[in-house]
Each structure stands twice: as C-alpha cells, then as structure tokens.
Fold each of these.
Amino acid sequence: MSLTERDQKVIWHPYTQMKNALPHIPVVRGEGVYLFDEDGKKYIDAVSSWWVNIHGHAHPHIAKKVAEQLSVLEHVIFAGFTHEPAVQLAERLLELLPGDQEKVFYTDNGSTSVEVALKMCLQYWSNTGHKGRTRIIAFKEAYHGDTFGAMSVSGRSIFTDPFKSMLFEVEFIDLPTEKNIEQLKSKINYLSNEVACFIFEPMVLGAGGMLMYEAEYLDQLIETCQKHGILTIADEVMTGFGRTGTYFACETLHSKPDIFCLSKGLTGGTMPLGVTTCNQKIFDAFLSDDKLKTLYHGHSFTANPVACAASLASLDILLSAETLPNIQRIKRKNEAFATQIKEHPKVRDVRQKGTILVLEWETGNDTSYLSSLRNQLYLYFLERGIILRPLGNTIYILPPYIISDEDLDYIYQTIQQALNDI
Ligand SMILES: *Cc1c(COP(=O)(O)O)cnc(C)c1O
C-alpha cells in the first residue's frame, strides 16, 4: 500500500470533509521554500505550511539547536522547575515586543495562548473585586482558534455552527472604517462598565478571509477601551515575527495592548509552542495570600525546552541582518504585482500588507460557481507546483521570508495565467 492509502485507512485530517477528501500528498522532505513528495515532485510552500514557517523548511541553524537541546534536556515539569531556554526566550521576547510587556506565560499553541489571555482578563476583574465585568468585545470576522474559549471569541461561521449554543456570548463589532469608527467607539463607551476585554487581530484578520483594516482606527478603539480600563489583547499568532513588515504588527500603533498572544512563527514553524505575555498591572492582580487569586492554568508540555530552543534559534535568524530586508523585498514585489493586476476583470479586490498578498476572485452572483471555485483554484496551483489554500474565492500568498525573486515571479505569473484560464 502507498502512504496515501495507509493514511486513508487510519487518519482523520484537520478541516477536511473525509467523505470526498482529495488524496493527501505524501511529503518526504522539506528544504527552504520547497516541499518534495514521494515521486520527487517539488512544491513551493506559498502559505508557509499554515502560516507557521518563516525561515524555510529544515533550516540548518534551527535543526542544530533543536538537536543539541534534545540530548541535554528534552523536557521538565514547569511548575516548581525552570530552565535556561524558557528564561532566555522570555527575556528576548519581552525585549522585542512593543509596549510595556513584563511577563511570559507558556502554552503549546495559538488557541491555548488565547485561552490564557481570556482567563487572565476575566480573572483580573474578579481578583480586583469587579465581578460584573465579564463581557468581551471581538471583531465579527475574527478567528482566534478552535478550543471553546477561542471559538467563542471568533466570528460565528460554519466552523462554529454545531457548537453555537455552547459558546459564550460576545459583543461582536464590525471592522473599523472612517465611516463607522465613531459608532464603534460609542458602543464601547456604552458597554464600558461590563466589559472585561477587547481581543483583536491587529490590522490583518487571517482565517476570517485575510481582511485588512487601518492601524489608525485600531489605535482609536484601544484608546477608547483604555479610557474605561477595558483590557486589550493583541492576538499576533499570525501577524507576529515579521509577517506584516515589522517584527510585530502592533509596532505601528501608538497605543500599547495589555496582552500579546504568540505562536505559529514563534518556533520558526518547527514545533508547537504558545506564549501569552502581559504587563505588570495584570500580573500584579494575581499576587495575593488568597489562593483563589492564582492563575490555575497549565499544560503538560508548558515551556517545552526543545520548542524554546527552536524559538531561540528562529529569533537568531529573524534578527539577523538579512531578514528585514527580505521582508521588505517581498513587500515591494507584492505591491508592484497588486498594482499590475488590480484592474483585471476577474479581480474583485486585491490587498497587501508586508509579506501577505490577497486576491479576491470575482464570482458575480453565481453561488454554484463559488462553491466549486475554491477546489478548482487549489488544484490549479498544486498541479503547477505551488501550495496555496484558498479561503473560498480568496487566494493569498504568505511565504517564508527566504523565498527568491524567481519563485515569487513564478507564483505571480501563475496567478495571472489562472485569471485568464479559470
Ligand atoms: C492560527 C491562529 C490561532 C490558533 O492557533 P493554533 O495554533 O492553530 O491553535 C489563533 N489566532 C490567530 C490569529 C491565528 O491565525
């Protein structure tokens, strides 16, 4: 039996209707921006393997540091014990994050980093004697993960529909624009005394359709929250570590969120790790002789030393002299390509931010076309050796920063060809 056939017998894949799933491609090796299948076919990983890989596959520096750590200390319980990689990573992250972040809490993925952020905010208010502040504000099209708390603060969609009666209530708001910003601020002012926190993806909403909005309006929303003491959570799970052109998207804000959620690019896409950071104000609200004020949260693999070592190695590369210029290079090329195709009749919208380029396909009113278009686009690029994962009629590229100009040009040419063929 082939690997694909053995897979079919025993594996249940994520986000996949298994009844009519396309055969899963057996990947045997990765190198730089490329993945290779069993037959030796080469693919450009234009979505960074679900947005996690920032420096390319099987990076020698990360591989070396991970291997070294494995033979020194693979794991240790993180309650009552600590270790060098966890402390050093916290020191380096706090140095790099914008604002006044002071403490790092480790988990093992993006969803759990969001769960911890929500718990920190809700318990902050109960610890400080404001038990009525339990409401949460989030964007209507947000995506914050797949565990129940993270699902609750994500937009209601087909992903969350089977669980909708079990999800806690959230005050959803529209993405801010010049037109609605005053209205959004009034809503926050009106709800203020009952609100614990506002959670947001800064400037780019990922799984919700790669939607973008202006930093200026996020600043205004955060400032309005802060006027009322409402805590703010920046979910930088996708935007962190250079993706939008700066190390963190929030660097371009004037205001300072209270909490950051990080994962995905944190380990360079090598292994799972999540981080929730907070400022001193939040941390101090949990210091007490009363045991009930403790943050009772933890995972078996909290601050796994090997994952921390991978993250330290990934930070070395991120902060090296080549990386920001690479990010700027991708950004400039994306901008030029966006300008070139924006008038194409099949392009409904094209937008870009940093290394992310997004193109919405014109579908008219034909819904049957829309439902088949996604798979058609996916297969079109796959056949031409490019991995893209369209979100409905939206295709996007979000590549590792080491992608070459030639590979970018090949992707652009293929998109242009698809616009003519499909
Ligand atoms: C992917 C993502 C998450 C969830 O992270 P997982 O590691 O998949 O659980 C949360 N927030 C944002 C913005 C994401 O893009």
Amino acid sequence: MRPIPYGRQQIAPADLEAVMQTLQSDFLTQGPKVEEFEKKFAEYIGCKYAVAVANGTAALHLCTLALGVNQDSRVITTPITFAASANCVLYAGGQVHFADIDPETALLDLEKVRVLLESKPKGYFSGLIPVDFAGYPLDLEAYRQLADEYGLWIIEDACHAPGGYFVDSAGVKQNCGNGNYADLAIFSFHPVKHIATGEGGMITTNNPELYQKLLLLRTHGITKNPELLHENHGGWYYEMQALGYNYRMPDMLCALGISQLDRADAGLHARQAIARRYDAAFAPEKKIKILNPLAYASGKTPAHIFHAYHLYIILVQYRKELYDYLRENEILTQVHYIPVPSMPYYKELGWQKGDFPLAENYYAHCLSLPMFPSLTEEDQQYVIDKILAWVQRQTN
Ligand SMILES: *Cc1c(COP(=O)(O)O)cnc(C)c1O
C-alpha cells in the first residue's frame, strides 16, 4: 500500500468487536474494561500495579506529581526524545536539565548523567527520566545504582518499548517498565506505538504508595474508597483529597487496548523480522550506519538485550536528500527526534546550540524507516531497494 509510512496501526476485526461491545454496554468512561486492561497490562509487563490514563503525556504528568516534583525540583532527561518526556517536569513547576546521548545507542548516556550529578552538590537533582529510545532497553540496573548514590527517583519513559527487556547481572530478564529498578514507568497507546488505542497511556509501578497517589490524581484527586475517607456521610459521599485532573482512559479504548494486547507478542516478532531484513540489507553498505543492529546479527549489540523496535533508525551523511528522495517515491520516513533543548521554547529557558553535540550530530543524520507489523515483505523490499539505489549513487 502506497504511500508507506514509518508507522501504522493495525486494527483487527476482534478490535472492532471489542469496541462495539463496550459501546453497547452501560460504561463509556470508567467501566470494567479499565481494570481488566490494567490487570492484563501489568501481567504482560510483569509489574504489580498499572494505572490507565488519557495518554502518555498525562502519564508523565501524573508521575511527576506523584513523586512530588515542585519548584525546587531539578530533573535530568535526554535531549533525544519526544518533548513530553521533558515537559512533564515543567508542568509540575520543576526545572529540566539534559545530559548528552551515547552515540552508539542514542540513549541518555549514564556516564554523562554521572558527570552532571558530580558537578553539583548532592541533593541538587531529584530525579531522572531516561527513555528506552526506539525500543532499545535501558540498563536500568546501572541507572538504579547511580540514582541510589544520589538519592534520585527514576521515571522510565518506556513508550517505545513494551515487550523489550534486558537481562540484569543476576541473569534475570527485566521487562521494560516492570518497576524492578525504576520507581515508575509510562507507556503510550498513540497509533504509531506498539499498542494503539488512539489516545491512551499507562503507568506501571511496584510501589503501593505511588499507586494509590496515581489513582487519586487521575480522577480530580477524588476518592470514594471507604478506607481512605476522612469522614463518611453515606453512600453518596466522596472526598477531594488532592488537586488532581481528569486523566481517565475511557472504557471503550481500554477494550481496544485489551484486544490489541492479545496480539502484542505477534507484533513484536513481526518487528524483529523486519529489523533482521533491514540489518541484512544494510550491513554491507558502508554509507549506512544502523543504529543498534539486532543482537544476533552483529557482535556489537550485547546479546542480553531484546529490542522492541518501535523505530528502525539508520544514519546517513545526506539525510535530507535521502528523506526527500524517499518521499518522491512514496516512502514517508521520519526523524526522531529534533533535540528537545534546541526547540525555541527550551532555548528561551537558556539551552544553546552546542550544549549537546552528540545529540545534534545524531539528529543531523538519523532517519526512521517504515517499521510496523503489517509492513509486507514486498513493500519492505521496495524501501530497501530505493535506499540502496540512492546510497550507491552517492560518490563520497
Ligand atoms: C509517544 C510518546 C510520548 C507521549 O505519549 P502520548 O500518548 O502521545 O501523549 C512520550 N514519550 C515518548 C518517548 C513517546 O514516544
């Protein structure tokens, strides 16, 4: 199907059926599908608690509120992410700081974070928001060690990585977002993500106190739970105990999420197969650098990583020319991401060109190729052929 986008959702007959059933039920906002989706998602990720919310950005906002971010908070995130990973700190009144990326993975570089932490007195920073960028899992065990040295919390932005995992030093498989090392993790169900519900998001955690706070903040700070009430005037009685928001995910979208979750593993394997074909096609081509080639396709990527492949990214010298050429050929690639601190809004906050040279250099060359489970082998071959034909025409 042309044009070929970089990402596309897949809606199956079972999804339509699930949404129809919920539309005909008594619940459009908070109904039984919300809890069912939360339970199934928590099982899939392997964590204790999951809280469904309006979208990934709302998830990030609630996480910063639950962790008590305020005007005294300084939080470190990566320049190569979607703006929301940084904005959520500002929503809660805190300050955002960035550390540069590891050019090999394009993930926030833990050593750069360490240097930044060491440059200030202990207690200066309060938290970290690293991102499993493109679906490549963070080494959260190492992050936790550093965070503990400095008394920091961690929000893992796992929007790109449901189903991804790393194996920790004890040999235990740690799914992205499972809450064993990070305090909180967040996911998005935007149509380009693994699980698509239109708008939708999820927060995962193993921390019961944070879980209770998130439930409260998701619905206006209001609770009806008899165990939490200060007083109780009768069956109608509720209390607003915190300044919360309406960040609920509707029942019908949770029904869609449940149906999509049933196919999540199939989608992951399709993504892996697509990545393997790209890797094989581009590995011999010196003018293409593959970001994070598959573990078993190269000796470089550690074998204890399972890449969830939200994005398949290559780096080329003449990126704009390749982007335009592919567009003329009905292949709609994308660039992930323009460094957040280079946005006009963040520049006004004091960030300057040259602050994060590795992120800027990455941005100058990166290109996200079509990567979604319903991409046919034929369409993928067309993409590969066009890219190779273009690259081979370059003289230097
Ligand atoms: C998609 C995304 C978000 C925001 O999710 P929405 O559901 O669109 O609000 C946040 N962080 C990252 C890394 C994302 O990719």
